[in-house]
Design a protein that fits this description.
By secondary structure, the chain is of the alpha/beta class. It is built from 6 helices and 14 strands. The chain binds nickel (II) ion and manganese (II) ion.
Length: 226
């Protein structure tokens, strides 16, 4: 399984020969100015919620690649009005099996509306079960007791959690979340993009290490094998 980081909370996971892109926000991100969305190939696009910093490039990439967009029903309605054709509209609690394995939509404690003010449904996280291993992307969220349910559904190889604080969990709560989900390998996202969420990388990694966990912070454009 491979993961490529595109900045903020956008990343691509390759598993079972399929490419799943998460929360595309690249062209408005000054830190990701070297990434060209035209170069990104994907079979699926998973969108956690409607905020612009998770959906900005979704219509452009979905239109070009014809990828299947996995998102809340209300986000499906909004994107389909903009010409996107292929979807799996879902909602929290729902699970779907496809050629990559399966995805289950789970609770995220956050807010959600689309960039033009349209209602964006409840935000969600995703639990993936695949032949190459299971992983969890929480989306933007606070630490929630509901995360204790995740081990019922998956034995996580890694998890992607927001760590930037202010709008989502910060480091301390992300470490507690890693305990709840029983996962020691965390890829941090949703930090540094805006002034409100700038973090000290080394201090963050040390805090995770002190809790017996690994925090991986990738360079934008970097790919790792998991
Ligand atoms: Ni958000
Ligand atoms: Mn966000």
């Amino acid at each position: 399984m491979k993961l490529t980081y595109y900045g903020h909370a956008c990343f691509l996971v390759e598993c079972n020969g399929k490419r799943i892109l998460f929360d595309p926000f690249i062209t408005p991100n000054e830190l990701a100015k070297d990434i060209r969305i035209e170069d990104i190939a994907c079979d699926y696009i998973a969108i956690s919620h409607g905020h612009a910093d998770h959906i900005a490039d979704a219509v452009a990439i979905a239109t070009r690649t014809q990828a299947t967009v996995i998102c809340a029903f209300e986000i499906y309605e909004w994107m389909s009005k903009q010409g996107v054709a292929n979807f799996r509209p879902m909602n929290t609690g729902g699970k779907w099996s496809s050629d990559f394995g399966s995805v289950k939509c789970v609770v995220a404690q956050h807010s959600s509306c689309l960039p033009d003010g349209t209602y964006g449904a409840n935000p969600m996280g995703f639990v993936f079960n695949t032949a190459e291993g299971d992983f969890y992307y929480s989306g933007d969220t606070a630490l929630t007791m509901d995360m204790q349910l995740i081990p019922r559904w998956a034995k996580l190889k890694f998890a992607v959690l927001p760590i930037g604080d202010n709008f989502t969990m910060g480091i301390e709560d992300a470490i507690a979340a890693a305990d709840f989900i029983q996962c020691d390998k965390i890829i941090g996202v949703h930090y540094d993009t805006f002034g409100y969420i700038v973090i000290d990388h080394e201090a963050a990694k040390q805090q995770f290490a002190a809790a017996g966990k690994e925090l991986i912070l990738l360079n934008i454009g970097e790919t790792i094998e998991l």
